[in-house]
């Protein structure tokens, strides 16, 4: 089969583009090297839908950030995704930083950010009682929101698949060659795909992908790691808003971000590294994260930390997002340098790719059966008493509480496993259902999740992976009857 559009990568960028293309009558496929969508930067970031105060006026980042922020309100309804309209404060501690607040206030206005204002200490403290004592003024950014990033990407992909897009995971693209009608794309397992367009949305790997076909890649990816700690959801309410420091030459700085489910995320630092996929954390990095947080708030319950993690930003030498058709190969589209605010901008990036790059070259015919809506699964614990009764009568597995921290039942897990983008790894189940996302981080429930996955996919527990298709959790049986 020859595809019209082949998208490499199923992070937030690739999945949003897939959904956008599913509005049209075209054959589209998404190839992903991992065993699930959204396993890289899209699953390790600050989860903020930024207002747009930060990017340079006139840049693509500024335009797509503000547009993307507004589109999340639409996505909340269409894709039934979590969106927490909590706003943000950027804090200042002295006259110099107050000067920066003023500069960002003006920049936010120029970028079209709604509702920005500067508040004095008293006004700010009335709204956020745990602000650090030495905060003198804040920039109020009420249009800032928080989402659950991988769920947005998975929801967009599920919706795209429901509307006719194909998704192939465990398919690492290893070569791209131009042919008479477009491109031949090969994956590591030897599969060949023919396509008219290639859309390179491979995150930190975009340069590597581009080098498969381009003589001169017009950008260079300079990976930048950010480390985090995450506090247990029992700290919910400690702060209401996202707290930013004034930015420095390294970026937005170390933030405190109340999450949709009640946790508080603290981080990230910003360190250049050579590796595209080193997501380790370090004592030194986390010390910087803690010190940064103390400039934002007081009495931080650091002892409620349940996990540390890091993500890699796909920053590029181009500085701005690089979203252009190749100068060497017609139909090869770079969607590169998608670092922050890439999560926010993704829905607008998808529209930009389709409307400004593809549409001028192609007659796009509407997909008459396109349905913009996808429904999230309500966990048993969140159901009303009547709903619980109906659910339990239809499936007794709702009576088996698997994840005690996040209160996820076997019935919930099975429903999350079998959707149009299925979940066949432990991390895929965690991303969708939150089983393993709580205080014990899977210590008590992981073995049950493995058993459920094995049963649902007709595999042995030894074959169940955590993250990639080579991350088995169980290595061999220890109590085999001879
Ligand atoms: C520390 C940090 C904090 C951030 N905070 C925010 C924030 O608060 N708000 C915000 O708006 N943005 C934020 N961002 C930016 C945002 O997370 C990214 O811009 C966004 O997730 C990028 O998505 P993506 O789809 O382009 O890349 P990714 O999510 O990395 O996805 C790329 C995909 O391509 C796949 N792939 C790579 N090579 C191949 C291949 N050869 N074959 C097949 N598939 C391949 C990968 O496996 C991966 O799934 C942050 C980023 C980081 C790292």
Fourth-tier CATH superfamily name of the largest domain: FAD/NAD(P)-binding domain
| End-to-end distance | 50 Å
Identify the overall geometry: globular
Largest sheet: 8 strands, mixed
State the total count of DSSP E strands.
22
Cα gyration radius (Å): 23 Å
Which features does this protein show?
single chain, alpha+beta, FAD/NAD(P)-binding domain, D-Amino Acid Oxidase, Chain A, domain 2, 3 domains, 8-stranded mixed beta sheet, 5-stranded antiparallel beta sheet, 12 helices, binds flavin-adenine dinucleotide
Question: What can you see in these coordinates?
Answer:
Helix 10 packs across helix 11. The longest helix has 20 residues. This protein is of the alpha+beta class and 482 residues long. The model has no long low-confidence stretch (mean pLDDT 96). Strands 1, 2, 9, 10, 11, 12, 19 and 20 form an eight-stranded mixed beta sheet that branches. Strands 13, 15, 16, 17 and 18 form a five-stranded antiparallel beta sheet that branches. It starts with a strand and ends in a 25-residue tail after the last helix. It has three domains: 154 residues, FAD/NAD(P)-binding domain (3-Layer(bba) Sandwich), CATH 3.50.50; 147 residues, D-Amino Acid Oxidase, Chain A, domain 2 (2-Layer Sandwich), CATH 3.30.9.10; 84 residues, Orthogonal Bundle (Arc Repressor Mutant, subunit A). The structure holds flavin-adenine dinucleotide. The site of flavin-adenine dinucleotide has 41 residues, from helix 1, strand 18 and helix 8.
């Amino acid at each position: 089969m020859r595809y019209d559009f082949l998208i490499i990568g199923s992070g937030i960028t690739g999945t949003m583009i897939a959904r956008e293309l599913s509005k049209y009558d075209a054959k589209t496929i998404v190839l992903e090297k991992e065993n699930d969508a959204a396993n890289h930067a899209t699953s390790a970031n600050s989860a903020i839908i930024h207002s747009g105060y930060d990017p340079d006026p006139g840049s693509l980042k500024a335009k797509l950030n503000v547009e993307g922020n507004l589109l999340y309100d639409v996505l909340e309804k269409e894709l039934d995704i979590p969106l927490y309209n909590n706003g943000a404060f950027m804090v200042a501690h002295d006259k110099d930083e107050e000067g920066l607040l003023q500069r960002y206030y003006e920049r936010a206005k120029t970028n079209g950010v709604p509702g920005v204002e500067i508040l004095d200490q008293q006004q700010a403290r009335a709204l956020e009682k745990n602000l650090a004592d030495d905060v003198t003024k804040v920039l109020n950014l009420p249009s800032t929101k928080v989402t659950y990033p991988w769920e947005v990407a998975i929801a967009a992909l599920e919706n795209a698949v429901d509307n006719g897009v194909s998704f192939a995971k465990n398919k690492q693209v290893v070569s791209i060659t131009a042919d008479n009608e477009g491109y031949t794309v090969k994956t590591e397992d030897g599969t060949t795909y023919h396509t008219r367009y290639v859309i390179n949305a491979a995150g930190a790997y975009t340069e590597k992908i581009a080098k498969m076909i381009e003589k001169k890649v017009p950008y260079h990816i300079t990976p930048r790691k950010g480390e985090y700690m995450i506090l247990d959801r029992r700290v919910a309410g400690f702060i209401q808003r996202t707290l930013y420091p004034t930015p420095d030459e390294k970026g937005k700085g170390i933030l405190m971000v109340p999450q949709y489910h009640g946790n508080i995320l603290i981080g990230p630092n910003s360190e250049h590294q050579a590796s595209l996929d080193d997501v380790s954390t370090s004592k030194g990095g986390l010390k910087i994260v803690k010190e940064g947080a103390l400039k934002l708030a007081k009495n931080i319950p650091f002892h409620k930390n349940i996990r540390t993690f890091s993500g890699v930003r796909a920053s590029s030498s181009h500085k701005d997002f690089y979203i252009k058709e190749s100068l060497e190969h017609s139909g090869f589209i770079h969607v590169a340098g998608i670092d922050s605010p890439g999560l926010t901008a993704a829905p607008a990036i998808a529209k930009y790719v389709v409307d400004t790059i593809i549409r001028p070259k192609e007659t796009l015919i509407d997909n008459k059966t396109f349905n913009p809506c996808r429904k999230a699964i309500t966990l048993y614990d969140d159901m009303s008493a009547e709903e619980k009764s109906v659910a339990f009568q239809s499936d007794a597995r709702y009576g088996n509480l698997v994840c005690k921290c996040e209160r996820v039942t076997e019935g919930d897990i099975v429903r999350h496993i079998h959707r149009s983008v299925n979940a066949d790894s432990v991390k895929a189940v965690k991303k969708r259902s939150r089983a393993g996302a709580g205080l014990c981080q899977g210590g008590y429930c992981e073995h049950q999740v493995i058993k459920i996955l094995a049963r649902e996919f007709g595999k042995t527990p030894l074959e169940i992976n955590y993250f990639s298709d080579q991350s088995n959790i169980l290595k061999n049986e220890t109590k085999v009857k001879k």
